[in-house]
Structures are given as structure tokens and as C-alpha cells.
């Protein structure tokens, strides 16, 4: 079972479109290209199997409480300073996964570290 990957609005959709357009135009920076490549790979793996081992997917309770539905975190990278993490939810449609956040892993796991994570809104369901 494959999932369709959707982007939260407006932040995640805007970031992905910006990176995609810069890559196509050849104007993407090295740092942006690294993010674009890792993020693209993580989304491919996520669409095929949200439990894929290298993603280290797990739920994030503070974000779940804040967002109102279970929020999951998957790795884009590991064992590196400020390793990037992708935050996502199931939906809005049955076979959808929506990326709602992309940020470095919070350094301080206590004291409300996840309060600083910016989360996009869900796209509208297809009718």
C-alpha cells in the first residue's frame, strides 16, 4: 500500500515548490540541494512504508496534543548536529500522508522544545 504525499499549507508547500523550482532552474545552492535530496528520499521511503527502518518514525506527544491529531516524526538524517526531522500526519484523505513540518531536531528534549516547531495546516480533502 503506497501513500500519496501531500504538503501542509502554506509553509511546506511553499518550501517544496521553491526547492523544486530552484533545482529545475539550476539555481539551487549546495545546502538547499542537500536538503532537497534528503527530503525527497525520505518522502519516497515514507510513501512506501512509514515504518521503514532508516526513517526511525515515532509519534511526538507534545505535537499531537497541540495539533489535535497524532503527529509523527521521521528522520531525514541522523548522527549529525541539528539533524533534520520531518513532521507528518495521516490524512486528509485515507491514503494520504501530509508533511506539516521540517526542522532540525530540538536540542533540548525537555522544557517545551517542541513548542518551537512550526506546523503547517492540512490541505483540504479531495471531494
Describe this structure in words.
There is one protein chain. A hairpin with a 5-residue loop joins strand 4 (84-90) and strand 5 (96-104). The protein is of the alpha+beta class and 127 residues long. A 5-stranded mixed β-sheet has the order 1-5-4-3-2. Helices cover 32% and strands 20% of the residues. It is globular and about 40 Å long. The protein has helices at 11-25, 30-48, 61-67, and strands at 4-7, 58-59, 72-75, 84-90, 96-104.
Write the layout of secondary structure elements.
Elements: E1 4-7, H1 11-25, H2 30-48, E2 58-59, H3 61-67, E3 72-75, E4 84-90, E5 96-104
Parallel strand pairs: 1-5
Antiparallel strand pairs: 2-3, 3-4, 4-5
Task: Label this structure with key terms.
single chain; 127 residues; alpha+beta; five-stranded mixed beta sheet; 3 helices; 32% helix; globular
Question: From the alpha-carbon coordinates, what is the Rg to the nearest angstrom?
Answer: 14 Å
Structure annotation, total helices: 3
Q: Which residues form runs of ≥5 with pLDDT under 50?
A: none
Strand segment count: 5
Biggest sheet architecture: 5 strands, mixed
Strand content: 15-25%
Instruction: Give the end-to-end Cα distance, rounded to a whole number of Å.
Output: 21 Å
Which class of secondary structure composition applies to the elements? alpha+beta
The helix/strand order is EHHEHEEE
Shape category = globular
Q: Can you give the helix content as a percent range?
A: 25-40%
Mean pLDDT metric: 92
Strand order of the largest sheet: 1-5-4-3-2
Amino acid at each position: 500500500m503506497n501513500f500519496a504525499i501531500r504538503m501542509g499549507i502554506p509553509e511546506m508547500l511553499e518550501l517544496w515548490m521553491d526547492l523544486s523550482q530552484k533545482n529545475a532552474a539550476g539555481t539551487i545552492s549546495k545546502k538547499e540541494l542537500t536538503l532537497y535530496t534528503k527530503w525527497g528520499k525520505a518522502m519516497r521511503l515514507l510513501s512506501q512504508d512509514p515504518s521503514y527502518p532508516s526513517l526511525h518514525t515515532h509519534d511526538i506527544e507534545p505535537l499531537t496534543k497541540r495539533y489535535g491529531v497524532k503527529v509523527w516524526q521521521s528522520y531525514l538524517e541522523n548522527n549529525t548536529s541539528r539533524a533534520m526531522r520531518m513532521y507528518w500526519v495521516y490524512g486528509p484523505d485515507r491514503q494520504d500522508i501530509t508533511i506539516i513540518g521540517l526542522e532540525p531536531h530540538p536540542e533540548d528534549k525537555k522544557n517545551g522544545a517542541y513548542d518551537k516547531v512550526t506546523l503547517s495546516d492540512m490541505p483540504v480533502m479531495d471531494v
